[in-house]
Design brief:
By secondary structure, the protein is an alpha/beta fold. The strands form two sheets. The chain has a seven-stranded parallel beta sheet with strand order 1-10-9-6-2-3-5, with helices on both faces.
């Protein structure tokens, strides 16, 4: 069954709606609230809309990190998590998790991810560092990053001057990690995501050639699309 689709006027409208849902889920959580978070552009409006609320139970579960990335590098997910999520929301460092080889066990021992926020690669439908052909039941592991994904990252991280500067490997949650969450919320926004949106919405089931379509296999999945991406 295809995931629910909600079209909103602008990223800010998506961000406000998602932030309100996350706050309600957080506040009703009996224990830690684990939120799966991507870096990059897609969820920035959501993270911004989350500011000004109390997130005392929030655990930020980052999706990926480049192999060997210095923690302050412009493309580092560690830096992104610290500066663009944790600091504005008042989340201490010990509640910001970065993937490692024992990630899935750590998540499971803590009760599982409550909501995974997802973006979608413009050219290949990647989520995290999972490009076309990623294993449906894959768990967190070090992966080779597809060239299509690396090319998408040239747009995401404008300080990269060439494809050769984009790392070849990274550690990433797997599709099995993602689909095990209680809920999935995928965001597509901007004119550069029109083709990706059209391809995702043309599907009503998981297609290994388009990893973001994993949302169609989840019973509580919503795809948010802004007007520019839906045109």
């Amino acid at each position: 069954m295809a995931a629910e689709v909600r079209v909103r006027a602008a990223p800010e409208a998506i961000g406000a709606e998602l932030a309100a849902e996350l706050a309600a889920r957080h506040d009703s959580s009996p224990g830690a609230f684990l939120l799966g978070c991507p870096g990059g552009r897609s969820l920035r409006a959501t993270y911004a809309a989350m500011t000004g609320r109390r997130w005392d139970k929030l655990v930020v579960v980052m999706m990926d990190e480049y192999a060997g990335a210095p923690p302050d590098a412009h493309y580092s997910c560690t830096r992104f998590a610290r500066e663009e999520i944790a600091a504005p929301l008042g989340v201490p460092a010990e509640r910001v998790w970065l993937p490692d080889e024992g990630y899935d066990e750590r998540i499971e021992e803590s009760g599982g991810v409550d909501v995974f926020l997802l973006g979608c690669g413009a050219s290949d439908g990647h989520v995290a560092f999972l490009g076309p052909g990623a294993a449906r039941d894959g768990r967190t592991a070090t992966v080779e990053i597809a060239e299509t994904t690396r090319r998408d990252n040239l747009a995401t991280f404008s300080a990269f001057r060439s494809l050769g500067e984009v790392p070849l490997r990274g550690i990433s949650v797997g599709l099995g990690t993602i689909v095990a969450a209680r809920a999935l919320r995928l965001v597509l926004q901007g004119a550069d995501k029109r083709s990706a949106t059209a391809r995702l919405l043309a599907l009503d089931a998981y297609d290994p050639a388009w990893p973001a379509s994993i949302v169609h296999e989840h019973p509580d999945a919503v795809v948010y699309v802004d007007a520019a991406a839906h045109a």
